C-alpha cells in the first residue's frame, strides 16, 4: 500500500489587499487608476481620511514622475507598480518602474510660474519618511505616513548590563 497526499482543488484564495502590487500602464490616465486603487485599499484598511488624502496626493506625485521621466528606449515606457503596505497606525506606499531603472534625485529650485518641479518638495513636506529603495524586482521610491501614534503601554527603561 502506498500513502499519497492528493491536493483537492478548492476555491482560489486571493491574497490580502495589503500585499498586492498592481502594474499600471505608463500613461497619464494610469495615475488616476493608481490613485483609485490606493483609495480603495486605504478605505478597506480604515485609514483616517486626512491621511488617505495625503497618501493619494503623494502617490500622484511619484506615479507622475515615473510616467513623465521614463526613458523612451524601453519596451514598456513609463509602466509602474504601486505597492501599499499597512502596519499598525502606518502605511508605506511604494512606486517602482517596470523597467527597473534607478531613480535619480536632483536638486531643483522650481520656478514660481512653472507647472512642474514641486513633486518631491511636496513629498518631503508631507511624508513622515520617504526615499529610494532597492528590491530584487528593482529600485523605486517610497513614502510613509503615520497617524494616531499610540502611547507606550509602559515606560521604556534601558536594560542594565551585568558587571557594570
Automatic annotation (TrEMBL):
CDD domains: HATPase_RsbW-like. InterPro entries: Anti-sigma-factor_SerPK, HATPase_C_sf, HATPase_dom. It comes from the Bacteria. Pfam families: HATPase_c_2 (PF13581). This is Histidine kinase/HSP90-like ATPase domain-containing protein. GO terms for molecular function: protein serine/threonine kinase activity. The keyword Kinase applies. Keywords: Kinase, Serine/threonine-protein kinase, Transferase. Residues 27-128 form the Histidine kinase/HSP90-like ATPase domain.
Amino acid at each position: 500500500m502506498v500513502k499519497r497526499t492528493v491536493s483537492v482543488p478548492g476555491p482560489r484564495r486571493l491574497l490580502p489587499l495589503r500585499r498586492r502590487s498592481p502594474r499600471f500602464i505608463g500613461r497619464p490616465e494610469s495615475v488616476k487608476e493608481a490613485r483609485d486603487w490606493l483609495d480603495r485599499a486605504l478605505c478597506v484598511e480604515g485609514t483616517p481620511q486626512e491621511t488617505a488624502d495625503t497618501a493619494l496626493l503623494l502617490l500622484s506625485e511619484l506615479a507622475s514622475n515615473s510616467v513623465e521621466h521614463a526613458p523612451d528606449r524601453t519596451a514598456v515606457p513609463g509602466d509602474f507598480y504601486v505597492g501599499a503596505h499597512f502596519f499598525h497606525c502606518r502605511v508605506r506606499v511604494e512606486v517602482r518602474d517596470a523597467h527597473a531603472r534607478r531613480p535619480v534625485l536632483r536638486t531643483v529650485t522650481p520656478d514660481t510660474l512653472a507647472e512642474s518641479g514641486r513633486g518631491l518638495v511636496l513629498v518631503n513636506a508631507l511624508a513622515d519618511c520617504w526615499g529610494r529603495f532597492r528590491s530584487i524586482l528593482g529600485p523605486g521610491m517610497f513614502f510613509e505616513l503615520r497617524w494616531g501614534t499610540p502611547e507606550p503601554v509602559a515606560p521604556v527603561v534601558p536594560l542594565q548590563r551585568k558587571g557594570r
